[in-house]
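Fig. S4 source data, part A: sequence.
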Amino acid sequence: MKRRKDKTMLKMEEKKININRIHFLYEALAKRHASPEETYHAILNEGLKAFNLSLGIISQIEGDRYSLLAVSPTRGDISAGMVFELKDTYCQRVVSENRIISVEHAGEHPGFNTHPVYIGMRLESYISAPIWVRENLWGTLNFSSTQVRAISFSEDDYEFISLMAEGIGSLIEINLLISENENVISALRKNNDILESIFENSTIGMALVAPSGQWVKVNSALTRMLEYTEDYLLSINFQHITHPDDLTTDLQ
């Protein structure tokens, strides 16, 4: 009876921990005034606590290039902006298999103990998930440590790192959309400036006229041709200065 009660209490505690994890992730992603870098570090720091590991990395992968987008904690030998060859990282398996990869004791795992990362850094425990942006594998989220992990990564751990990776992917996609919109707006403004210059400097009389006939915009060539000031033209409609014989045709 006591064992059953202890198991029930343990499950309730695990459920509470998972709810707290998800709640934190939602808060980190929902902060409107936080910069992407602040959000990345908040997610990495929470992952380090959740998995009890010592190094968290968000990477961007382009071909064979493995670029560090965010690192926590920042260290002298590894920091954001550094670039490595993908083949020299554990994340190569995440990319090649398109799934979450984990290991608790790399030194006893034949797929890891001969890897350059293990030889160079002796990273024993590791968990990583792919980051997808616009249906393409954009990079990875990973946590690691030189310490052997005594407890195996659980399904809840897999679910949590998957949610974190999805949140990061959504954040990156939003930032891409904002950047693209800004570029579109900038291009439209540039095109508008060109059109404005053509309109103002044309030697041909040009005007924008409302459906009612009201002058909306006139250029200098038109004011010289009609011998009316711009202010006067904008205060009337074209019917006022159109010859009666031409008015029906112009209205049509």
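Fig. S4 source data, part B ends here. The beta strands are 55-62, 65-72, 83-85, 101-103, 125-133, 136-145, 207-209, 215-218.
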